[in-house]
Amino acid sequence: MTTLKLSSLLVIFTFLFACQPQKKSDEQPLVSSPFKITTTNFGVLPEGDSVTKYTFANSNGLEVSIINYGGIVTNINFPDTSGKVEDLVLGFDHLEGYLKESPYFGAIVGRYGNRIAQGKFTLNGQAYNLATNNNKNHLHGGLKGFDKVLWDATPFESADGAGLKLHYLSKDMEEGYPGNLDVNVTYTIKNDNTIEIDYKATTDKPTIVNLTQHSYFNLTGDVKRDILNHEVMILADSLIPVDAGLIPTGEMMSVTETPFDFRQVTPVGDRIDEQDEQLSLGGGYDHCWVLDKTTPNALEWVVKAMDPESGRVFELATTEPGVQFYSGNFLDGSITGKYKTAYQHRYGLCFEPEHFPDSPNQANFPSVVLNPDEEYHTTTVWRFSIVE
Ligand code: BGC
């Protein structure tokens, strides 16, 4: 009897033990994550909502901070050739700067990146008047664009990378745009030192959309001087000439034998002060280049910038047909940003992948119309490296 009991107890015990979760091996991930995510408070908006800063570090020296206000990239820390880690983007140490005086530093721009003449357009026979905020024109989404709203933010980590999923519902007629626009922007920081920005949107009424990202880069690190020494390449045979209000004339202009030819790597400062009608209208470079894509919507590497002193290299791939290269011409020292630095003339450069400016009023430009049965989806990738 006792022997039987004992042996059955032993069987039950062995069975129960075998069923126990193998704690040790389950709790230890097979491969430890190469990413570190930290979350800090970045202040409070006048309406009372808290703003959070999410920092993502990979194991190859790239550290990126993003806030849920405006989806703003506040810092990109990356080493130079000697290993010195410094910040490569313009911005502010505190939320107040972004609320008060930011010329779209690091922000997500929408619903329409770039200008729409007089803020007017017609869609399916219906005329719309958008908010005007730039010499009677509409710029970067209007008075309160996507750069000035609080996004729902969810940090994540996947096999692919770590990052932030941002969501914003832009209500019907916000800033004058028709349709409830449901927007998802995902930043993914990867271990190969790339940052992917993926934009998706859907609408319940026909509308227009042209989202972009407005980081000002200065690869010298911690913004030591202007960007005129940066060597830039843009794979584009033509660009979109503009009028005095920086509104497209509707033509395309060949870059051949102009200061706009960046098909070969050229320092920004080499030709920026030449006598040239388009340069004087832009106050320097402030134009949309028409990218040479092998396939219109393919993700292709089209822009490169390199700072010869630090050896830092920035590259950009996009699915978009154009890129606005803005050489920070409106910076004039009146804004003091991070590290107590006054941002002087041309202290930062922007590469804003986008559809062409004023597309809703230009029949020959690729369409920016989004209909209820469609999904808007574009992708841009930034890659950081050091010259060999
Ligand atoms: C525009 C500039 C403008 C800047 C900041 C750029 O995208 O092209 O003209 O000054 O944004 O608003």
Spell out the blueprint of helices and strands.
Blueprint: H1 2-19, H2 23-27, E1 36-44, E2 50-57, E3 63-67, E4 73-79, E5 85-87, H3 95-101, E6 108-109, E7 115-116, E8 120-123, E9 126-129, E10 138-139, E11 152-157, E12 162-170, E13 181-189, E14 194-203, E15 207-208, E16 212-213, E17 231-234, E18 236-240, E19 253-254, E20 266-267, H4 277-282, E21 286-291, E22 300-306, E23 312-318, E24 322-326, E25 350-354, E26 369-370, E27 376-386
Antiparallel strand pairs: 1-2, 2-3, 3-4, 4-5, 6-16, 7-10, 8-9, 11-12, 12-13, 13-14, 14-27, 15-26, 17-20, 17-22, 18-19, 18-21, 21-24, 22-23, 23-27, 24-25
Plain-language structure description:
- By secondary structure, the protein is mainly beta.
- It has one domain (36-386): Beta-galactosidase, Chain A, domain 5 (Distorted Sandwich).
- It is 9% helix and 36% strand.
- The chain is built from four helices and 27 strands.
- The protein has helices spanning 2-19, 23-27, 95-101, 277-282; strands at 36-44, 50-57, 63-67, 73-79, 85-87, 108-109, 115-116, 120-123, 126-129, 138-139, 152-157, 162-170, 181-189, 194-203, 207-208, 212-213, 231-234, 236-240, 253-254, 266-267, 286-291, 300-306, 312-318, 322-326, 350-354, 369-370, 376-386.
- Beta-D-glucopyranose binds next to strand 24 and strand 25.
- Beta-D-glucopyranose is lined by residues 103-104, 246, 286, 324, 326, 330, 350, 352.
